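TASK: fixed-backbone design
INPUT:
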């Protein structure tokens, strides 16, 4: 399912977390030997470092951890050793981005590590490539300015993806909804669609008999061929109100694709029949994800349903085949989710880190500890028996594997 993506990341080991939602961008890790219980105060704190503002989660490949954050008026890229938190190099550039709602001035896009390069996309649309070994700048594009993209509610937050040897981004301009760049030079290779930019990040997966780059844009699902940018499928799916976002990442499995938003719209599962996308199930009664992306464990979705900004978010287990709700844990709050070693790890917006048995019969909490301070919106990462989580002031490494 993810053959194209993995071919673009040749130097990774199985337990790396090199991009948005992990190696396959599905929230799954191949980590083993994870603890099934924690001390009362939570998993051991292995190290911590000060961090600036931003909701960008870390990316890890080998002995490199990339922290993307903002310090004063600069967006900063720091390379740390994941075992110790010690700095290897640091690079930065000036930014003028300001959040209109005074939430956070970004950045919000998870870095992408591929081979000997790292790629970042800042809150103001600064797309940059860096030398992973030294931190030297390779190239940069100011995509919002170059393509005439409006600021939007919360700045740029989609994370880049490599597919078919090309760096793809939901830029969101007329005639340039999706743009492919040469990862070596930053040169535009192709552009497609008029779809506006969303806060969702794309994936690579198989629909019908084709391996495609799949986006959840402002307008809905858009599937394109990585080679030439041919639009193969589209499916309108967005809230009726303008004051809304599409933010959850699509999930592809068994030839079907899942997308979900909130605002009385909900989720839809689609599959290709007769060359066209058709609904398997849809609606607002199963799982309506405002920000957080669910994880698919075997044949069930585990994810956040409801609006986090209105205090309505719950954790829910839903059948993949039908959308039937199996159980709901009320007042759970929004959370970033990771599935690994038969466990579900949730990093909740209230600062709790929660260990869960992903049972389909009922909610089964194994451990919980307050490890972070508000606000918590950055996605967690798991690598080398360590859970990396951050809030608005610090990044911490927690020992969740057997030492």
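OUTPUT:
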């Amino acid at each position: 399912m993810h053959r194209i993506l993995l071919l673009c990341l040749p130097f990774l080991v199985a337990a790396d977390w090199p991009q948005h939602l992990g190696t396959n961008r599905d929230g799954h890790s191949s980590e083993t030997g994870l603890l099934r219980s924690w001390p009362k105060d939570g998993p051991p704190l292995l190290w911590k470092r000060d961090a600036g503002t931003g909701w960008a989660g870390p990316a890890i490949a080998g002995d490199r951890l990339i922290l993307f954050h903002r310090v004063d008026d600069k967006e900063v890229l720091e390379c740390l050793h994941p075992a110790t938190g010690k700095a290897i190099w640091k690079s930065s550039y000036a930014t003028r981005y300001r959040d209109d709602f005074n939430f956070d001035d970004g950045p919000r896009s998870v870095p992408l590590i591929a081979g000997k390069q790292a790629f970042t996309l800042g809150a103001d649309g600064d797309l940059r490539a860096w030398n992973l070994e030294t931190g030297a700048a390779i190239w940069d594009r100011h995509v919002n300015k170059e393509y005439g993209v409006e600021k939007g509610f919360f700045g740029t937050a989609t994370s880049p993806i490599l597919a078919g040897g090309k760096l793809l981004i939901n830029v969101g301009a007329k005639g340039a909804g999706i743009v492919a760049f040469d990862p070596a030079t930053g040169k535009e290779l192709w552009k497609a669609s008029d779809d506006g930019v969303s806060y969702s990040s794309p994936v690579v997966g198989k629909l019908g008999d084709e391996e495609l780059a799949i986006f959840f844009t402002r307008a809905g699902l858009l599937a394109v061929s990585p080679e030439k940018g041919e639009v193969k499928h589209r499916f309108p799916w967005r809230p009726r109100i303008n004051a809304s976002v599409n933010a959850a990442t699509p999930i592809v499995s068994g030839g079907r694709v899942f997308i979900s938003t909130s605002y009385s719209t909900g989720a839809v599962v689609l599959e290709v029949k007769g060359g066209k996308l058709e609904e398997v199930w849809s609606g607002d009664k199963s799982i309506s994800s405002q920000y957080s992306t669910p994880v698919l464990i075997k044949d069930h979705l585990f994810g956040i349903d409801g609006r986090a900004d209105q205090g309505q978010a719950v954790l829910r287990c839903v059948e993949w085949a039908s959308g039937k709700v199996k159980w709901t844990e009320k007042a759970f709050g929004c959370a970033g989710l990771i599935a690994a070693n038969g466990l579900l790890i949730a990093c909740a917006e209230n600062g709790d880190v929660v260990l869960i048995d992903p049972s389909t019969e009922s909610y089964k909490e194994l451990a919980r500890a307050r490890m972070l301070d508000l606000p918590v919106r950055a996605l967690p990462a798991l690598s080398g028996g360590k859970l990396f989580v951050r809030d608005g002031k610090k990044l911490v490494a927690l020992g969740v594997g057997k030492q």
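COMMENT: Residues 3-7 form the longest helix (5 residues).
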